[in-house]
Amino acid sequence: MKVTIKEVHSVFAWSWLISNHAKENGESKNDVDDEEDVCGICRASFNATCPGCTYPGDECPLVVGDCNHSFHVHCIYRWLDTTSSKGLCPMCRQPFQLKRGLAINDSHIKKFQDLHLRRTQGQAQEALAEGDEEALGRVADQQSHGNGIIDEQGDVIMEQGLVVR
Amino acid sequence: MSRIVKEYKKIKKVLEGHGEAFENLIVQLAPVNEYDLLSWKATIRGPSDTPYNGFSIGLTIKIPSDYPISPPMVKFEPYKMPHCNVNFQTGEICLDILTRQHWSPAWDLLHVLKAIEQLLQEPVPESPLNVDIANILKEGDRTAYTGLVRYYFCGGT
Ligand SMILES: [Zn+2]
Ligand SMILES: [Zn+2]
Ligand SMILES: [Zn+2]
């Protein structure tokens, strides 16, 4: 018998390569619903999209925090963009920062820095308006974990000496 | 698929008996209408080591459109729940995890019901919404506390 190949259709499967740190740290998996890894905010699989997106993959990427908790970038951004988030990871309540040196985080670092800056500025202005020295100190403290500091006027001084109002 | 749809699936599974942790607590937890997952009803059992033991207590849950970024709005039924941290007229609950300041989108409705169970077990008379009950608790009179709660349940006002 002779077989002639007329056409080849390639089919690929893909999935996000998620760091296993969280599991190594002995974090127990939520026993009931997840046979696979899900986003802690929307509970959808990392290999699916957040509720706002249609196509998984580049349209709805993942980010990994310093604390090793991963989320759809849209989900964690939406949360961190609220004042009530106080910039904390929903899972472990530590200040959420993107883990450095991870390829999947690289393209989002600027956006998250801007967000962090916006939030701390907002807090500083609020504290300033209320004359709340203690809160201002706290904000300045938080800010110094980011990449700028806040002076007494509530302006944010970036590492480069750039002043952001 | 929205988060509340995911939760609904999980809740159905849990209530079908895969989650023993909730068996003693939840009688019912379901949307009022299958086609509107923003409005829920729950019934919980009063915890055994409390004056609520033996009573079923109703709750209403409203899911905000930006859930789980914002917390669910959970209340007891009006004029039903005698508890020092519950407004008797409105059913409003004073519970930190239900406030924007303390809520985390990592939590879900099952967490919330667990937290409410804990509030029934450990009332906080220092921040009361029902002064009568708070005062009795502060005096440390368990018998009077149980008596008053039961009096309310049996139709007293
Ligand atoms: Zn998500
Ligand atoms: Zn998305
Ligand atoms: Zn975390």
Automatic annotation (TrEMBL), chain A:
It comes from the Eukaryota. CDD domains: RING-H2_APC11 (cd16456). InterPro entries: RING-box_E3_Ubiquitin_Ligase, RING-H2_APC11, Znf_RING, Znf_RING/FYVE/PHD. One of its GO terms (molecular function) is cullin family protein binding. One of its GO terms (biological process) is anaphase-promoting complex-dependent catabolic process. GO terms for cellular component: anaphase-promoting complex. Signal peptide: none annotated. Keywords: Cell cycle, Cell division, Metal-binding, Mitosis, Ubl conjugation pathway, Zinc, Zinc-finger. Residues 50-93 form the RING-type domain. PANTHER family: RING BOX. This is Anaphase-promoting complex subunit 11. It comes from Zygotorulaspora mrakii.
Automatic annotation (TrEMBL), chain B:
Pathway: Protein modification. It comes from the Eukaryota. The active site is at residue 94. SUPFAM superfamilies: UBC-like. InterPro entries: Ub_conjugating_enzyme (IPR050113), UBC (IPR000608), UBQ-conjugating_AS (IPR023313), UBQ-conjugating_enzyme/RWD (IPR016135). It holds the Pfam family UQ_con. CDD domains: UBCc_ScPEX4-like (cd23812). This is UBC core domain-containing protein.
